[in-house]
Amino acid sequence: MKRYIIGDIHGNYKALKQVLKRSKFNYEKDFLIIIGDVVDGYSCSYEVVEELLKIKDKVFIIGNHDVWWMNHMANGWAENIWLWQGGRATRESYESHGYHYKKLPQAHKDFFNNGVYYYELDDMLFVHGGFDYPRKMPKDETKDPRDGKEGRTFDEEMADINDTLDLKSPSEEESEEGKESEEKVEESSEGVEEEVDEGQKGEEAEKGELSEEEREIKEAEDILDHIASIAEEQGYEVETDLLQAREVAPTIVDEAVEREVDLILIGITYKRRFGQFSLGSVVPYVLKNAPCRVILYQEYTT
């Protein structure tokens, strides 16, 4: 028997099949450790679970995306942050097979509800998102390491899980081999304005022929043109857009969700606050709530 580990499948059925085939995984003899986030992201979460159910010897460790899906299975919960982070694709995957949260295959429900929060093997500890190192962990691997209660069902766990589980929004990387994503760049002139440091403002004030708003718009357009040219040189089809709004960060995220973009690119400049480099307020919000990959493009000024 060989032991294999896989994590963050995120509904990518094709990639799952590829790695199992290329690793010559034996569904009857080998052992698979699944370290969380089976669902959310790609459009085949149903097929992924079906494939995993075929494996005789396995252990499933619950990830934060699995918790969101399990919450939806239990009571139809569908908060925006889950939908933005791939939940919509998971729900549509099951709906395409005639299922919804009130009607799901029992084998699928059992798969998730029988998951554990960590797994010990020899001198190794497997978890999805880390653990509190100083805290003594219970020896029984079926226990919840956060409170030491054994044999808790998902419905019982839901009473306090959202207060104790770290539900940070991970940056999801596409793992499907050979897939070339159509990149759409979202930029905001006000986002650029917030990140311009005092030195750059003084230098640009000499231009004088443009108002501050016009200057910021022109700079944002120049950034978009530059990025578009780079993408086109690499053979990507790119659609760019310039956003202007009173509240920049929520607008970027909302537009990205509505347009189903593949990438958000944010141009920033070096800015200091209290003597340290600062990302401002826009970047952290977008990094936390974006439904896709985010790239920060730092412009160095002299």
TrEMBL record:
Cellular component annotations (GO), alphabetically ordered: cytoplasm
A GO molecular function held by the record: phosphatase activity
Database matches in InterPro entries: Ap4A_hydrolase, Calcineurin-like_PHP, Metallo-depent_PP-like, Rossmann-like_a/b/a_fold, UspA
CDD domains membership: USP-like (cd00293)
Comp. bias (Acidic residues): 172-197
The UspA domain, residue ranges: 204-296
Boundaries of every Calcineurin-like phosphoesterase domain copy: 1-141
Gene3D superfamilies hit by this protein: 3.60.21.10, HUPs
Biased composition (Basic and acidic residues): 136-155, 198-216
Region of interest called Disordered, as start-end residue ranges on this chain: 136-216
PANTHER family associated with the record: METALLOPHOSPHOESTERASE, ZINC-DEPENDENT ENDOPOLYPHOSPHATASE
Protein name, per record: UspA domain-containing protein
Provenance organism: marine sediment metagenome
